[in-house]
Amino acid sequence: MRRRSRRTFLGHLGATAAAVQVGSLVGEAAWQPATDFDLLIAGGRVIDPGQHLSAVRDVAIRYGRIAAIGENIPRDQARQVFDAADKLVTPGLIDLHSHVYEHGTPLGVNSDLVGIQSGVTTIVDAGTTGASMFPGFRRFVIDGARTRIYALLNLSTAGCCTDEIYLDPRLVNTRAAARVIEANRDLILGLKVRVRGRREDLDHDVATMTTARELADEVGLPIMMHWSTEPALLDIMRAGDILTHPFNPPTERSSNVFGSQMEQADAVLPQILELADRGIFTDGQLATTHHQWDVSEKATSQGWYPDVISTDLARTPEQIPASVLLPMSQFLHLGMSLDQVIAGVTTNPARALAYPETVGSLEPGSPADVAVLELEQGRFTFGDGSRPEPQTRELSQQFMNVATVKGGVLVKGGLDG
Ligand SMILES: [Zn+2]
Hints:
The chain is 24% helix and 26% strand. By secondary structure, it is of the alpha/beta class.
């Protein structure tokens, strides 16, 4: 081994050794600096549910990765210091269900606005595009975005259109889907299947999901399915799949955790309660057409919460595309603990898909994606998707993004912090 490459090699070894050493230091007072850091996020309350960590700590970054988490890491060990006193420091947030084909589809939002500008370093686009549109999405959005974007491929070749077009079997081409998946394994992490979930459509929905199941098993990817409480549809789902939109207003077009419009149960239905035991993830939104406050309050008062918090085209009261910070604030209002809320946008969505690199974690060695947040106090009114008039609730605090680090680089937020 030549001298220079050997030194580089040892440098990497050093980083690993430091990471191991530091991992064991969490919770202890002593700090033995091993080397210098590129960036130190100092003095914030670090919440990383994957490490069961929720305490004031310093996060040290080197070579684009988390190098160490510890107490009182000397500031002069770092080339840059971000003072996070009185702030929350979390893994870069993950939005498991967004639609970010801006300009390519009418509902697409700007990925960096709801991404790194909001502390969200990883976005999963949930089925905006199907086989015929994905190459354009990749070229015109994903390749140029500063936020990490992954995708669930819509079973429909045309992606997100209207229900009527989607449900047309002529738009389901599993050979085309499989080809696009194989060509984009680095970005496509699952399938998205839109069903209506109503009993009248059950035969059609079961046929669609059966086709999706065969494709998903062939390519080895999970399925995200629109909400249904029909056992015939839920039975097609397997461990690792994701069921989305639990809090739909009960209308003739949609059901929720309590069933259909015709049969709203008093308690969360047993087939929904058993999803967790079956290893099926639930993905919830609170600021979209897929939410009614009466439904989410009734479910959460019974202790039922989705595993994952996502946006799916959330809008602020001013109708600006909202990031996952908005439903996070609403779930906090609904009684989730702060650590549970953070798990819903970090640890849990990280477990739900097989990402090519570690996301949603501050474990030493992980890519250094970090969000610095604060809870703003005040009075904030949020509506839901009820028609004709939204139901509204007043919140006493909301999450704000102070700074974002992606891949070790401070991409939002000044060092005066
Ligand atoms: Zn969606």
